[in-house]
Amino acid sequence: MTQLRRINLFLSILIFMSCGTNFPERPLIQYTFETKTLEQILSSGPVWSKAHELKYNFGYWKPSVWVKFDVSNPYEETNDYILELEAPWVDSVLLGWESGGVIVQKQFDGSKPFAEREIQHRNPIYKLSLKPYETKTIYVFIQNSGILSAPFRIWKINSFFDRMERDYIANGVYFGIILALLLYNLLIYISVREKAYVYYCMYLATLAINYSLLGGFFKQLFFPNVAMSVKPYLYVSVNVSLTFVGLFSLTFLNLKKINPFLHRLIFFSVVAFGMMAICSFVIPSNWIEVSFIYTFPYIFLLLMSAGAYSYVKGVKSSLFFLFAWVTLFIGVIFDSLTKASLIPSSTFGRYGVQIGTAFEVILFSLALGRRLRFLLEENLIAQNQLTTIKKDLETARKIQMRILPDKLPTNQKLSMVVSYHPLYDVGGDFYDYFEFSDGFGLVIADVTGHGVSAALDSSTVKIAFRNAKEFKESPKELIAAMNRFLCTSLSARFVSAAYFYIDFSQMKLYFSSAGNPPFVLIRNGEIESFECPGLLLGVRSNFEYEQKMIGLEEGDRILIFTDGLYENLKPDEEPDAILFPEIEPLVGFPQNAFHTNLLNRLSAMRQVSKDDITLVSIDLTKV
Fold it and tell me: Which of 64, 277, 427, 594 is the most core-located residue (most Cβ within 10 A)?
């Protein structure tokens, strides 16, 4: 079903690309191969040949051609027109006409920087204003190494810019498909490490480069200020594309085992394409373009034959491979026939290569998807191993829960609610308390890191806390004792912690911190935070920690937490700025409702959890 949805999506995109495609007719041209200047053409009147209605291509061996055609304004008002030469790869163009006895000339040089063009467009275009019912004869001298053609269109200026917008959308969709498939299959490669995915991704990348060069987007978008001819780079990228698609085919079809002869034939073809890519800067352009006339049908037929043979031999995913080449072959045929003026121009003919390659890469992607099905047995084995790991993690979770207090304090002078949410099955947060007649001591800690290793170290933190029990009424001494123990017990890991001692006889709170976030005090509807700076535990054994004190009142609510409570919510803001607006609407709530609602409000803000979360709320009971 996923495969069918992908194909339906692309068909919808294709329909969208075809909508609104209303091209103006090409002008009827006359041409001559005489080598003259524009002044000579206007004065001496060369012998002009009338082109066939659909003939705008003059082959690969002519270096230049003069063409002329008329542009008319049939309206009662002056209108602006755009003359577009649909050949972004042309070497140079000289366009001229006579206006009031003055010869107007405009030039285009394909090797000059894109930014110097009069109108910033991927094709050579020229603006022309015509008075009411005026007709001008346009003369154009075109030079090109390679195929020589004159595919002009005459647009009303508004229609041209409307069509240009659609054209960029259509090409954006095409490049978007290529990029999406590239990223998708690259991610799959990272997961499965199949060599075929590497070659396929390289083929997609070079395919996008090919069309960006062929369509005139490369200079426009990437190097607008660089003087360069794109032709050598186009020839290199095309041959590199054929190299990678050959390597992909060798890997995907497994020909080395089922047909060594086809394997060797494709391999030597790949080597030949690689050599052609290297030599593309020195071989004349027309020779390279003529070679494509033979190499494209050759590689199509070779790879389609290999795909059919592989399918017959039982490689079922080769059926998609075969269909991919058939769709590309059809697209290239329509594109070639359109450019050769053997069939009328149409949307499919105009975008034949793009449509064909888009279908091809989608089908290649589906073929690779089928290939993944053969990895199911390995995945089942991996799933069994994962189940075993999960059982071990569940055991580790149960062990860690034994490290944490198994019940809440029973002191009648306070009530406490705790929420402990590790990022994974186990976590590095820890809390514990001492309870005695006239006082209450609470420690909260956060071991750096997550998962099993942090959870194991949190048990060490508990040992450090219990060993420091003699300092339970002096937070700074207790934190210092824990620090000395952890400096000798932890390796390359640190702990943020805080200890709070409530003296009920004096109604005072003493606290000391080692990098833990400030705690929050809520009294009579007012919210205030307090902190005590200190170095993380496990860094320096002789560090002396500070201790602070605040007075308490019955009815006070104290919130103590680790930094996972507010981290990744608003990275640029302080904890108070994040928490206070969420606490304020809840200050009148009973303790349990307050605690639950605060966590829910913060969870709604949090898109992804990235740390363990521990929240302790303590209410001082009113007598």
Answer: 427
